[in-house]
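I am still getting used to backbone structure tokens and would like to learn alongside you. To get us started, please write out a protein record for me. Once you have written the record down, we can walk along the chain together.
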Amino acid sequence: MASEQSEIPRRSLFGLNAANFLQAEMVGVILPLLNGYLKQAGWRYDSLGVATAIGGLGALIFQAPAGWLIDKLTCRRAIFAVAAVLTGVCFVAIPLAPRVPVWIDSLLFASGAAQTLFGPVLAALALGLASHSRLNRVMGANQSWNHAGNIAAALLAMAVVSALGLSSVFYSVGLCSLLAAASMLLIRDGDIDEQVAAGLTRGEEAKPSWKHLLHNRTVLFLFLSIFMFHLANAPILPTVALYVKKLGGSDNLMTATVLTAQIVMVPVALFAGRLCDSWGRKPVLAIAFWVLPLRIFTYSLATTPSAVVWLQALDGIGAGIYGVAVAAVSADLTKGKGGFNTLMGLFATAVAVGGVAGPLLSGVCVQHLGFRVTFYAFAALAGLGAAVFSWLVPDTARLNEQSAVAPAADLGMVEEGL
């Protein structure tokens, strides 16, 4: 297995990057295209919001258990492969099933549940392969490959949709799911330190309880700010895709809303890992939080489809940072304690709660109040989440440094961020 000083095995690192790339290739553009597909079938905006929320509900219910499971089990590569194939099957079934809510919502629920395993597994493999000292750089590379996969997915979708129609994109997801599962064969078991992958340091005995996470005020404030961030963020991409269509944009221009953001995310994610080391976690993650309300508000000022697509570049900044920085924060808060994947699952639960509530709220707002008022409301929500993060969450890298030198009697206060 890799040590702190040894070079990270190239084959396993390539397999991990490939898994990130192909996982994004599977699901990168499916949501806005799914909404367009169902809109063509005569679905109302609020019905589209419910369908999106149902997929988020599957993620919400299973996200925290998924993180806990990945902490407990070591067959992480097999878990990822099974989740990838199951997700592919769900999306391939969508154009084959009747386009009525009971069928579509059930498939989206199952796919949402399966996708809860992707984040914790990939983060655990990165930590077990790279160790704490090199996690940020490896996560930056992983997230760059993930966003590159989204770019490839958008380009592929534009090609197949132009040639074969919207339904063809679901079959491409099925193919990518098989390739994603196969990428796990490149990662060797011996290269993964299973203790480090769970958040422990090398040689430590596993700690059975993760309840310390629920008593940590930094964790609770982070959970709240992440929830508000994604309550505002989750419905915006599909809403923007529908806005592009309302303004007269084509299916390809609707797909380009994903492509524009992902092009920006690739370099941002790569640099985010380095900046988390040099600047600290909080200032880097704060950029992601504050870009979101600015981005949502500016959509209300756009009057042409092309302007909306260009504004999606701001999404690339926030999303490019978030995927890297949240793993760095989770590693800081669980180092030497265990529960890394459980904490990742808790934060992903906050994302999933936003993923359920946000689309429901946005669907109703768009249907009854219009796009502009919807953008105003969600920009305000995003600003509130950014304020909570900025005022109440400390820099977790500094907390780790303090806990390394604090007297034993003071460790509890350091962990609480007091």
Observations:
- The longest helix spans residues 135-164.
